[in-house]
Design a protein that fits this description.
With 174 residues, the chain is mainly alpha-helical. It contains 6 helices and 2 strands. The chain has a single domain (2-171), classed as Up-down Bundle (Fumarate Reductase Cytochrome B subunit), CATH 1.20.950. Strands 1-2 form a two-stranded antiparallel sheet. α4 packs antiparallel against α5.
Length: 174
């Protein structure tokens, strides 16, 4: 096994803080309360910090290290279908698309949630519809993300959850 430092402390802290905050708001906290709003603001702040870090951070945290790629995603799907085991040190192409999807979805959740608290949109139906749709989309995306992480960990032999905890990927020698 080759041990490679992949996820820096900011990326890991962002990831697990987001898991806790979004999970609490989606599953535990009363969505009509002030705590729900404040946690929503925390989620938006976390996403904003992550977006900034995607431009000024180093290594695999940078968006330039995992650009969205239709060809790369197609190749990864072919790899999965043909049982070819190509290791990606940072995000995989499909993983990159999921990251961008989740960041955008969470911003839409936060913005639409905020709009519902303003005088201008008080009682207007569309912000709530957008909010609920974006929350549902995000929840489905999170479930797909978890399933993909489990699948890719088993398929490639790289323990992805452990890497997001400790920061290092242990890549099998070939």
């Amino acid at each position: 096994m080759t041990k490679v430092r992949v996820w820096d402390p900011l990326v890991r802290t962002f990831h697990w803080s987001l898991v806790l905050a979004f999970g609490a708001n989606a599953l535990v906290i009363d969505d009509d309360g002030k705590l729900h709003q404040w946690i929503g603001y925390v989620v938006v702040a976390l996403v904003a910090v992550r977006i900034l870090w995607g431009f000024i951070g180093r290594g695999y945290a940078r968006f330039s290290s995992f650009p969205p790629s239709v060809n790369g995603s197609r190749e990864q799907i072919i790899d999965i279908a043909t049982h070819r085991n190509r290791i990606h040190v940072g995000h995989t192409p499909l993983g990159a698309l999921m990251i961008y999807n989740l960041l955008a979805a969470l911003l839409i959740v936060g913005l639409s949630g905020h709009l519902m608290t303003t005088d201008m949109f008080w009682g207007v139906e569309w912000p709530e519809t957008v909010h609920e749709t974006a929350v549902s989309w995000t929840e489905v995306s999170v479930l797909l993300h978890i399933a993909a992480v489990i699948h890719e960990s088993r398929r490639t032999g790289v323990n992805l959850p452990r890497a997001m905890i400790g920061g290092y990927k242990e890549i099998p020698d070939r």
